[in-house]
Amino acid sequence: MRLLLLFLFISCAYGLQLKADRKAHWQTGNPNHGPFYGQPEQVHLSYGGDPSRVIVTWLTFDDTLSTTVEYGESDNLDLSANGNCSLFVDGGQRQTKRYIHRVMLENIKAGVKYYYHVGSEFGWSSIFTFVGLQPRPEGGYRFAVYGDMGNINARSLGKIQKLSQKRDFDMVLHVGDFAYDMYEKEGRFGDEFMRQIEPIAAYIPYMTVVGNHEEAYNFSHYINRFYMPDSDHSLFYSFDIGPVHVVGFSSEFYFYTKYGWDQIGNQWNWLLKDLQKAEKNRKNVPWIVTMAHKPMYCSDFYADDCKLYESIIRTGLPMTHAYGLENLFYKYGVDLELWAHEHSYERMFPVFNRTVYNGTKEPYVDPPAPVHVVTGSAGCQEQVVPFVKYPPPWSAFRSSLYGFSRMQVFNATHLYFEQVSASGDELIDFFWIVKNRHGRPNQKDKLKLAKYGTQIPMNYCHHESHDCSNSL
Length: 472
Ligand SMILES: [Fe+2]
Known about the structure:
By secondary structure, this protein is an alpha+beta fold. The protein has helices at residues 2-11, 157-165, 188-201, 216-225, 262-280, 312-315, 326-331, 443-452; strands at 16-17, 41-47, 54-60, 68-72, 79-82, 84-89, 97-105, 113-120, 123-124, 128-131, 141-146, 149-150, 171-175, 178-179, 206-209, 237-241, 244-248, 287-291, 336-339, 345-348, 351-352, 355-357, 371-375, 395-399, 403-409, 414-421, 427-434, 453-455. Helices cover 17% and strands 29% of the residues.
């Protein structure tokens, strides 16, 4: 299995993969020529799909001919690993070239602190550290979760940087929309964003999904700059960590069909296979958490697809309802669905097919349907958004304050989730999901949902754009 994964890693095709025996453009015969800019920058880690594997990615603005991480359990850095390099040409007028370097570190020991730097003979980064992933003493792993963080007005950035370096989190899940936008100014916005997250991502894995702000040039800035495990595009992928199976996918395929329709079906088929596989492994990895950018449910004033009765993400393509995701995720008993895009925080009651499980005192104890959370208030220049006046039945808690979420999956039964302020110590919201059983909803779940659920009629309006009043 390991050999297979390694092969997949080496043979994948991000940008133009450069051959190991290539000649750089500056190798002209003139002994005084060298790379124009070989200094590594924008160093970031991602999870290699197993706690023993860490992927290190960085960028140079010129070809350095080699791609190396020197690392070890002290700053002697007595180990080294080589990787590959690909050329990413920006779609802007200047066609700026960026050389993206990727190295897979293997046999990383749980709980051991590693020191590392990256580069080549033409320049090395500063020394960073990471700790091999291992469950926390109280159980499981802790994640920072947020979307919609830009270069400008990145309100949560400082706090997340500080907490990451203190290892308050084990991993970041960034649920789409970066930089606003990465392609701007010939990609310099993307460079600046990757520099600003380096104090986070050089220390803990930074896991991502794509948002609408990454759309330019067919999402190529996202695809080239991030590297997610077991995927050659980072657009849809999954991994297990402790008791949770995390599935990342693109909501944007449904909206940017100018890049092709096949991507919707390809991804949907992949999701189906992935959930089938995860179902077989549910005894070992009981929780399934999905993440994608544009939500199915929301109630903020400027809401997009999620303000519609028939959100495309929820119910699929118009008329045919092909590739809808709500039925699929319900069928396979997805526990929690993480979203962003709306610049707010909103926790939903368990909900399926417009039936909201809000009629009990403990809606998150053995919920008979998936729980949704929108967490898109990390901070960007587009500011946070207000909510519609009357919360619709699916909305359990709403906040328009800047902030981000933290999640800890303690064990097979308990998942903790909270929303904290962008700075300071304010706890905005928290809740536990307690599950004594994971898997497909059974007859008992269906009866519970019917008995305690609120059925939302098709003519129910919660958004002023529908030109109707709240009458439920
Ligand atoms: Fe967005």
